[in-house]
Amino acid sequence: MFASTLQAQKKSFYDFTVKSITGEDFPLSSLKGKKVLVVNVASKCGFTPQYADLQQLYDKYGPDKFVIIGFPANNFMKQEPGTNEEIQEFCQVNYGVTFPMMEKISVKGKDIHPLYQWLTNKSENGKEDAKVKWNFQKFMINEDGSWAGYAAPKTSPTSKEITDWIEGVSK
Predict the structure, then answer these.
(1) SS3 (DSSP) at 4
(2) pTM for the whole thing?
């Protein structure tokens, strides 16, 4: 038990490969050295306008030292019913999204994606339990692939909490 706990805590963000919204493998290790904001997104949610703030944040800080990764999810009141193609078009047409978007996944429940299993469980990320409460929950990943924290769905992507983390401002 002790050895498996240590092993789990040594797992990093970079140990995962996900699929892009167009179906290609996207090894998260390709983001080494960058801060990463992971966000579960939905196109029919009251928080959907946060796409504009996410893009503003990416325009200001990305892509060299900071990147945002959007994961469409249909876990909350079926607010992301579209196909990957429809989601990609929606994001580009309505919000001019240029940050990487991944394929639609599950962020909770029995079919939770392995990355979100890591993001939401202290036993895997070594830091904190952080169940996804709604669309647009934000997870902060440090340059070394370690879990840094999370922000609630209602927290603006351009909040001081998130920009201070990106800029390396100590709390």
Answers:
(1) helix
(2) 0.92
Could you give the CA distance from residue 116 to residue 80 in angstroms, rounded to a whole number? 17
- Name the one residue in this structure whose structure tokens are 């100590």: 170
> At 30, which amino acid appears?
S
Environment class of residue 63 by beta-carbon count within 10 Å: exposed (0-12), middle (13-18) or buried (19+)? middle
The number of beta carbons lying within 10 Å of the beta carbon of residue 98 is 14
Mean pLDDT of the chain: 93
CB proximity list for 53: less than 8 A, separation 6 or greater: 156, 157, 158
What confidence category does residue 122 fall into, taking pLDDT thresholds of 50, 70 and 90?
very high
C-beta neighbour count of 89 within 10 angstroms = 12
Taking CA atoms, 96 is separated from 51, 58, 99, 104, in Å, by 9, 11, 9, 19
Active site residue 45: yes
d(CA 70, CA 54): 9
- For residue 63, is the peptide bond before it cis, meaning its omega torsion is within 30 degrees of 0? yes
Q: Do 66 and 37 form a contact (C-beta atoms < 8 A)?
A: yes
Q: Which of 45, 52, 148, 166 is catalytic?
A: 45
